[in-house]
Amino acid sequence: MFSSIRDYIESVFQRDPAARSAWEVVTLYPGVHALVLYRLANRLWRWRLKWLARFLSQFVRWLTGIEIHPGARIGRRLFIDHGMGVVIGETAEIGDDVTLYHGVTLGGTAWQKAKRHPTLGNNVVVGAGAKILGPIYIGDNARVGSNSVVVKDVPAGITVVGIPGRALQTRVDTQSQQREAMARRMGFDAYGVTRQPTDPVAHAIDCMLDHMHHVDRKLKILSEALDKSGIKVNLDVPELDVANLEDELSRSDEGKLPKENS
Predict the structure, then answer these.
(1) Which of 49, 118, 155, 189 is most buried, judged by most C-beta within 10 A?
(2) In this predicted model, what pLDDT tens digit does every residue of 225-252 receive, in sequence order?
(3) What is the mean pLDDT of the chain?
(4) What sections of the chain are H helices per DSSP?
């Protein structure tokens, strides 16, 4: 039990830069309180003590502003950031390592007593105010933009935005994987934020990364040809020391500051 608690707290640190200590996470995070009491309410629900389970979930709603139906099925390391206004319906299912921000609704669209709420895969991130409605499936690693309304299935690895939700980026292909690998070598994360498809800066970055990957591949072919000819030339591109580079930039910026008159 203690290992699972430690694992959960570590996952919170990975997703919330404002977290300073385990004690702060345990005592001050409403999403943590709501999830702990949901586990108890869910157990009561499965024991058929349904009134008591609903009473506990309503108490949690009053305490944290987060409403989780005790019949919902939630995987490991769910992180609800801020939490106010989050609603998770009875037949909702949530995978592992999912992140929900405030105002998110996993709601139903039917009156029948059947599966009527969404299912979220693993590593899904749902932005603030987003509404995911109906018995739809959100694939692993998908992203739902803030204030979006999603009423159709979302494939794995897709970002959706808008009302109704529409795909903002296509599946990860070989070219995008090459771009991401080249960006990591440079110490640059061009894919940490959602990019608009018409963004000229993002397009220029993509072109630069494609060109650099092409040059890198040509250098590798040239190096192999020279080795076969008996000419030893190291044409490998060295890894960029990002930490030292940041230190050098900070020192250079400090040197440019104007001196105060004495």
Answers:
(1) 118
(2) 888 888 877 666 666 555 565 566 566 6
(3) 81
(4) 2-15, 22-28, 30-46, 50-64, 174-185, 200-228, 242-255
